[in-house]
Design a protein that fits this description.
The chain is α/β, with parallel strands linked by helices. It has helices at residues 18-34, 71-83, 162-170, 190-194, 197-212, 268-277; strands at residues 4-11, 39-42, 86-96, 99-107, 113-118, 143-145, 150-153, 175-180, 183-186, 215-220, 222-226, 233-237, 241-243, 249-252, 259-266. The protein is 23% helix and 29% strand. Strands 5-4-3-2-1-15 form a 6-stranded mixed beta sheet. It has a 6-stranded mixed beta sheet with strand order 6-7-8-10-13-14, with helices on one face.
Length: 298
């Protein structure tokens, strides 16, 4: 093992009480640090239930202004410094009245605030009405250079777009983290479940790890969350995982229970793969990719 660090993912259920969800997440983060985790990532929108199941203006009240040294950011800053860990946390950001983002904040191991990523790709599907709540991000795909690794962040729907992962790798990311909220809609459709949707979810992310010769980790919520309107809901399938640069799963959580997943990752493997295969960067034909800036090639 060369440059080895430990990664911790917190997979949990969420209830109606925001304070209880927050306290549970912090308790699990402490548990991960106690197991030696150097980098800890929480799931998407970990402070609340997944509210975009319905369009409801009152849910804007869950959003908070994300200002360095204030509120939740100050609390997370203190936690990162106390535990000596890099902390990655997904929050509902209020930028202004009528302007909201699905954002993730990053703190270094000394508690310093490194910045945020705003979700770029926003879905609008039954049960996932995110366009009602979130404005697409305008910060690009930043890479955060932390004490333990260069980290890139994507959020849930971003994971389906190879361009996202590629830009993070080009920016120097060694580890891509994906806070996520994904599952089967209820009443559970057997045909959908057996169609391999969860398999596709995992496979595309393994591909990002291989194509960019980096570590890739998704942290999902788990458990059944009834829809706020009382109609159906979502069974979040958990299965948070860590994949290495060869696309091999080095750790995976259960599909039906809360779990603190902690595993070592060897960052030297990234250099070995990039030097040995050379395809992530050297052999790219950037002169031929102009079509990627088009929505569609008619």
């Amino acid at each position: 093992m060369g440059k080895t660090v430990k990664l911790g993912l917190v997979q949990m259920t969420c209830g109606d009480d925001v304070s209880e969800n927050y306290d549970k997440a912090i308790s699990y983060a402490r548990q991960a640090a106690g197991q030696g985790a150097n980098i800890i990532c929480l799931q998407e929108l970990f402070k609340s239930r997944y509210f975009p199941q319905v369009e409801d203006h009152t849910r804007y009240g869950l959003a908070e202004e994300l200002r360095e040294g204030e509120g939740t950011l100050l609390d997370l800053e203190h936690l990162a410094a106390e535990l000596g860990v890099v902390l990655v946390a997904s929050l509902f950001e209020k930028r202004a009245v009528g302007l909201y983002h699905n954002s993730t904040v990053v703190f270094d191991a000394d508690g310093s605030y490194l910045g945020k990523y705003r979700k770029m790709h926003i879905p609008d599907d039954p049960g996932y009405y995110e366009k009602f709540y979130f404005t697409p991000g305008d910060l690009g795909f930043p890479v955060f250079r932390t004490k333990f690794a260069n980290i890139g962040v994507m959020i849930c729907w971003d994971q389906w777009f190879p361009e996202s992962a590629r830009l993070l790798a080009l920016g120097g990311a060694e580890l891509i983290l994906v806070p996520t909220a994904i599952g089967h809609k209820l009443p559970e459709d057997v045909e959908i479940r057996e169609s391999g949707y969860s398999h596709a979810w995992q496979t595309v992310q393994y591909g990002h790890a291989v194509a960019n010769a980096c570590y890739f980790a998704a942290v999902n919520r788990v458990g059944v969350e009834e829809s706020p309107d009382g109609v159906n809901g979502i069974n979040f399938w958990g299965q948070s995982f860590v994949a290495d640069p060869f696309g091999r799963v080095v750790a995976q959580a259960a599909s039906d229970q809360e779990e603190v997943l902690v595993c070592p990752i060897d960052l030297e493997l990234i250099s070995e793969m990039r030097d040995g295969w050379s395809f992530p960067f050297r052999d790219r034909r950037v002169d031929a990719y102009g079509g990627l800036t088009s929505l569609y090639l008619d």
